[in-house]
Design goal:
This protein is an alpha+beta fold and 359 residues long. The protein has eleven helices and 14 strands. The chain folds into two domains: 174 residues, no CATH class; 84 residues, no CATH class. Helices cover 39% and strands 21% of the residues. The strands form four sheets. Strands 5, 7, 8, 9, 10, 11 and 12 form a seven-stranded mixed beta sheet that branches. Strands 2-3-4 form a three-stranded antiparallel beta sheet, with helices on one face. Strands 1-6 form a two-stranded antiparallel ribbon. β3 and β4 form a beta hairpin. The longest helix has 23 residues.
Amino acid sequence: MSERLSIETQTLHAELMERLSVRDAQRTIADLEGTFTTKIISGGEYIYFLHYDAGGGRRNISLGRKSPGLDELVERYKEGRKEEILDPFGIRELCAQLKAGRAAVADTGTARVIRELAEGGVFHVGGVLVGTQAFTCIGNLLGVVWDATTLKTRDVDIAIERNVNIAVPNITSDIPKTLESMKMGFFPIPRLNHKEPSTSFSIRKNPLRVDLITPKKTKSDGPVFIKRLNAAAQPLKFLDYLIEDPIRGAVLNGDATIVLVPQPIRYALHKLIVSQERDVTAGAKRQKDLWQAFQLLEFFVAEHPRDIEPSWNALVSRGPGWKEKAEAGLASMQRHFGAIDFTGHGIRKFGGHHTEYQQ
């Protein structure tokens, strides 16, 4: 079983997420005039900010689920106390406490890149942090200490749909400009076909790298230009399942940056498929995929078993190719890392009828 963060550290992380959400909401509405409304969604009360853009269009911006922090934000805004709009809320102190409590922390360079991308609007226009950086955030969200060998990477992978409805229209992000402004030496990595735009950015003699990816919608493997990022992304199969309905997470360093990450159980099941997509020269990456999936699935079987089957069904219902690769990945995972008993708890259908998948 994976090691758990202490209850105190998990509580601190929950508090950090609330404070980050409020800070993010404040930044979003800082220079806008408007009013607040509430909506009941699935039994929960959510706060929205209603304003009119320059063209007279009416826009509703979701600020998140009602909380004491958001209630305070509403009162400050109504009182005109915008000088407090970017108050740090003690976030740095919380980050120090979380680090002491063994929450996973990004290295300085990676954290800086993600922070600048966030400040540049990447996650406001539908970008989702995926890969190991997302896995790190997910561990903190779930209160789990992952095996350190599955966290060793400096790749920053951003996935984005070609077209999405975003809360604040006309907001764009310029990834090349953001990376250039950091003066860290990022350059676009040339593709084999020099007529195609780059989808990756790197620094010479430095493992830090930014990769842009998007769900594959056609047979073409060529880069897809994403206008709202002013950059091209590499289309990949099976990615749409991963980034559907992302959740908020946080990248921790001296400060913290709020990001979007995949739903944890979808991350695990997607890794089963990804492991089967890698060629024979990528054995180490395949092992890492399966080990990350194993740690997550082990956690969910122990803590939230009923969350598995709906996500599994959503995956396999996408077609026989999806089901075949997911089942092959599941079998490979259990051969390498041990069996997980998926029977009982309302998830008997998970993994189909292949008895070798069960204890």
